[in-house]
Amino acid sequence: MSEFTLKTDPAVFQDVLDGKKTFEIRFNDRGYQVGDLIVLKETKFTGQQMREGSPLIYTGREMQKQISYILSGYGLQDGWVILGITDFDNQQAKIEKLENEFINLDELQSIVNVIDR
């Protein structure tokens, strides 16, 4: 599973946040795959405004989503995809973190046992 950070226009960011927009249309220059995580970072200016000279400034708002579906073809220009996105279920990440902490506790116990001898 990979993680990608994507610039997102203010109005579009809000629509995703409100649950109105559950997809992204992106050029697939990153090799997106189902299960990958995307971090949407809201920009102060739109992509069009930045092409016209406005600077890239982030607002500080961001959210994490998971790619649940990828559509290519069907009239999309070559290289472009529609990414179905859903809320990231952080359960697996929490489990992995707990497992790592558990392993660290086991290692710590081993060190304590050696010291006690």
Labels describing this entry:
single chain, 117 residues, alpha+beta, Archaeosine Trna-guanine Transglycosylase, Chain: A, domain 4, five-stranded mixed sheet, 33% helix, elongated
Fold and architecture overview:
- The chain has helices at about 10-15, 45-50, 90-115; strands spanning about 5-10, 25, 35-45, 60-70, 80-85.
- With about 120 residues, it is α+β, with helices and mostly antiparallel strands.
Spell out the blueprint of helices and strands.
Elements: E1 3-8, H1 10-17, E2 23-27, E3 37-43, H2 47-51, E4 58-71, E5 80-87, H3 91-116
Parallel strand pairs: 1-3
Antiparallel strand pairs: 2-5, 3-4, 4-5
Protein name: DUF3850 domain-containing protein
Pfam family, one: DUF3850
Distance between the termini: 43 Å
Figure out the total of helices.
3
Q: What is the chain-wise order of helices and strands? A: EHEEHEEH
CATH superfamily: Hypothetical protein
| Overall mean confidence score, pLDDT | 87
For the secondary structure, the number of strands is 5
- CATH architecture call: Roll
Q: What's the arrangement of strands in the largest beta sheet? A: 1-3-4-5-2
Which range best describes the helical content: under 10%, 10-25%, 25-40%, 40-55%, 55-70% or over 70%?
Answer: 25-40%
What top-tier CATH class fits best? Answer: Mainly Beta
CATH topology: Archaeosine Trna-guanine Transglycosylase, Chain: A, domain 4
